[in-house]
Design brief:
Radius of gyration: 13 Å
Largest sheet: 7 strands, mixed
Shape: globular
Number of helices: 0
């Protein structure tokens, strides 16, 4: 069965850190680009960061540059999002996705999505 399962979300104070994990199974990990996206209830989903399978290059939402880092471990089929210096405006449901076609611009996107995870909640208190 094809699955992406996120973990690591929690309630933290402003300035704290978290590391989210996205565990992939049921498909060939190295065939895909990956991305992290977040959504607040009632608002549009926005791209946070994506990583390309071809060379491991990355793109980030401007508001998280210098604070968040995306990485992958192909041997373990896991994609990570390390988040430092968290702010209340980072509060959201964070979902990972496998797909193809990383693009930058106003926010990172995957032009084609193969599979979405169910998400993990990050809440940052002020």
């Amino acid at each position: 069965q094809v699955q992406l399962v996120e973990s690591g979300g929690a309630l933290v104070q402003s300035g704290g850190s978290l590391r989210l994990s996205c565990a992939a199974s049921g498909f060939i990990f190295d065939y895909y680009d990956f991305g992290w996206f977040r959504q607040v209830s009632g608002k549009e989903r926005e791209g946070v960061s994506c990583i390309r399978r071809t060379d491991g290059s990355t793109v980030y939402l401007d508001s998280v540059k210098g604070r968040f880092t995306i990485a992958e471990d192909s041997a373990k089929n896991v994609v990570y999002l390390r988040m430092d210096n968290l702010k209340p405006e980072d509060t959201a449901l964070y979902c990972c996705a496998a797909g193809n076609g990383v693009r930058g611009g106003l926010q990172p996107i995957l032009q084609q999505v193969y599979r979405w995870g169910q998400g993990t909640q990050v809440t940052v208190s002020s």
